[in-house]
Amino acid sequence: MTSRQNRNRDRADRGIPEATVARLPVYLRALHSLQERDVATVSSEELAAAAGVNSAKLRKDLSHLGSYGTRGVGYEVEYLVYQISRELGLTQDWVVAIIGVGNLGRALAGYGGFASRGFRVAGLLDADESIVGQTISGMAVEHIDRLEDLIAERGVSIAVIATPAVAAQGLCDRVVASGVTSVLNFAPVVLSVPEGVDVRKVDLSIELQILAFHEQRKAGGPGDYEPLAAGDEPPGTTHYVEAVEA
Amino acid sequence: MTSRQNRNRDRADRGIPEATVARLPVYLRALHSLQERDVATVSSEELAAAAGVNSAKLRKDLSHLGSYGTRGVGYEVEYLVYQISRELGLTQDWVVAIIGVGNLGRALAGYGGFASRGFRVAGLLDADESIVGQTISGMAVEHIDRLEDLIAERGVSIAVIATPAVAAQGLCDRVVASGVTSVLNFAPVVLSVPEGVDVRKVDLSIELQILAFHEQRKAGGPGDYEPLAAGDEPPGTTHYVEAVEA
């Protein structure tokens, strides 16, 4: 059940590295922006700049999809959107249940970016009787006791866990026992799952930590790695960074 | 103001690639878990598995910090935590203001993962008079008119924008005009900033898209890239994926 074994298996099956898979949604976001501006074709350099990667990496990533562009023209935006969407599985609808309807669960329930990418939130569940029955983003919150029935009735294929840490593993176990094999975890805890189940964890502080790195650079730190030595780097470095991973 | 120019400048200055910087918080998360279990040393293989990367990449990443471990022993957990925290700038406090106190802003205001990494939320701001004055996670929401004063008075160095898309650019401009050079953007819009300002964008749907990719694989799709051809890949592939980027 190690992640490496399965990642290698994945590579052997399809030849698409995990790191490429992780960048495809970023390319897709950039391509959607181009579509909004009625751009029909895009060079690898332009698309790479918009996505915040270098163009050689972009071309290699897209070659895994069998997409090579046309010399002197670039990539056809609409077809590339179709190819990436198809590769990611976004050309079909995915039924999502959100478990835990606190502030984060509410924010996710109303998040416009889900519906536009083919994710349909079909259920909101919480254990708190004072929340059950409330209408959030047009949907009534249901009691967590209904979890298994709701998954079966509505064909839920992805569970989003947005509960406190202490509740997450138990709910994850119930979700997996109900046959769901994809879990997006916002709870601050590492979930254990059997082989065949994908868990991805979102840590909202990671992007802040990357900003702190650059903020420190701008201030001139941290200097060399002599234990506890004071910083001695020249100040004034500036950066503009587009997030490649969110 | 292109991202590539500045990224290259960054590399030349310090020799730490952006991709390595993005993985350091993931290593740190894994190391904190080891500390909680009183683990004193860790091999590169163990740490790599916990972080979801391969061990060669981990060793190379850590070598940028001047950290090479000890043959047969591995890395000393406590010292590596110190090195990474120092590199990321987490050994000092960062003062954060959250702009936009809807569901997401509330979730971020109460997010435990910020304080524990050195991020102190010193202000909550909103334009909605019905929200101003409310107490969220022990802090009173202030009117957005106070933005510039609040940044100056409290020494805000990182602004978190959690507003609707339409308001984000104007608020970003005000934040930047007040001297803040790090912006974490949750609004579904690309922000324009002058050179010297770092923006990182969080798209909450990206992890879901990666799950969809694997879910589709498990179901046997999408097959080859003949336009509109039906999927013809053997079913039954399973994966376990640890999120490397959040």
Give the SSE map.
The structure is a homodimer of 246-residue chains.
Chain A lengths: L2 H12 L3 H19 L4 E2 L1 H8 L3 H9 L11 E2 H12 L5 E6 L3 H7 L2 H4 L3 E8 L8 E2 L2 E5 L3 H8 L3 E4 L3 H13 L4 E4 L12 E4 L4 H14 L27
Parallel strand pairs in A: 3-4, 3-7, 4-6, 7-8, 8-9
Antiparallel strand pairs in A: 1-2, 5-6
Subunit structure (chains A, B): Homodimer.
Keywords (chains A, B): Cytoplasm, DNA-binding, NAD, Repressor, Transcription, Transcription regulation
Pfam families (chains A, B): CoA_binding, Put_DNA-bind_N
Verbal overview:
2 copies of one chain form a homodimer. With 246 residues, chain A is α/β, with parallel strands linked by helices. Chain A has 3 domains: 3-88, Winged helix-like DNA-binding domain superfamily/Winged helix DNA-binding domain (Arc Repressor Mutant, subunit A); 94-201, NAD(P)-binding Rossmann-like Domain (Rossmann fold), CATH 3.40.50; 207-246, no CATH class. Helix content of chain A is 43%, strand content 15%. Chain A is built from 10 helices and 9 strands. Chain A has a 7-stranded mixed β-sheet with strand order 5-6-4-3-7-8-9, sandwiched between helices. In chain A, strands 1-2 form a two-stranded antiparallel ribbon. In chain A, strand 5 (135-136) and strand 6 (139-143) form a beta hairpin. In chain A, helix 2 crosses helix 3 (44-51). Chains A and B meet through helix 1, helix 2, helix 5, helix 6 and helix 7 of A and helix 1, helix 2, helix 5, helix 6 and helix 7 of B.
